[in-house]
Amino acid sequence: MANKFLNKTIPMIRRDFPGGKGERIVSRSRENFSQLCKVNENEPKALQRHTHNQIYCIIAIQKAMEDEGFSREDATAYLTDRMAERCNIMKPKLQRIMRFCNLWKKVPTIFNRFVPRMFGPAAGFEAEYIVTTKERSKFDMRKCPYATIFAREGYPELCQICCMSDDLTYGKLSPEHLGWARTRTIGRGDDVCDFDIFYLDEK
Questions:
Q1: Around Cβ 89, how many Cβ atoms within 10 Å?
Q2: What is the DSSP code (8-state) at residue 201?
């Protein structure tokens, strides 16, 4: 089973909590992740791409840290910082890719094709597509399984970590060429997530 966020975060946990404490958090995180996957093994595979790579990973670490004595708030803050760290590590790499052959010009088109496939009804999302041109991708996500599952598992506030990841990743792809606008997210308590990525001279 995939566990991308967990695998990327484990070295950070060991770095930040050397010795027995870090190893206990890692071990409990893995156990929690496996249990979440097992209990929800009948999920559609399209949804598992999200739950196994991010959602259950985040919940697993949160629970492991609480079991190790961290407050709920401190565990969430730690996960938020580690997600931000990962995004900042990736930022210069993604920006170099965007500069290669002016790939940034294809980003709205990629969004228009990629979002319905990866974030479509099969995975539990519902979206309204407003503008889908080569210069702009604007849509409202009206149903988000991230928010639904985090809430179901008793951790609605953890969804904001994934909202932040979007902002740090897509908002910095090519700051000189691409704009990124989002004023609402379901994970932060709104009724919709509004996404808008566009050529800066098009909005």
A1: 10
A2: T
Q: Any idea what the CATH number is for the domain that residue 161 is in?
A: 3.90.1520
Q: What is the pLDDT along the chain (203 residues), one digit of tens a residue?
A: 568 899 999 999 999 999 999 999 999 999 999 999 999 999 999 999 999 999 999 999 999 999 999 999 999 999 999 999 999 999 999 999 999 989 999 999 999 999 999 999 999 999 999 999 999 999 999 999 999 999 999 999 999 999 999 999 999 899 999 999 999 999 999 999 999 999 997 55
Residue 98 structural domain: 4-199
**pTM for the whole structure:** 0.94
CA distance 164 to 98: 21
| Helical ranges in 42-71 per DSSP H | 45-50, 56-67
Which residue bears the tokens 């206990």?
Answer: 24
**Residue from 32, 36, 69, 30 nearest 50 by CA:** 36
Structural domain total, the chain: 1
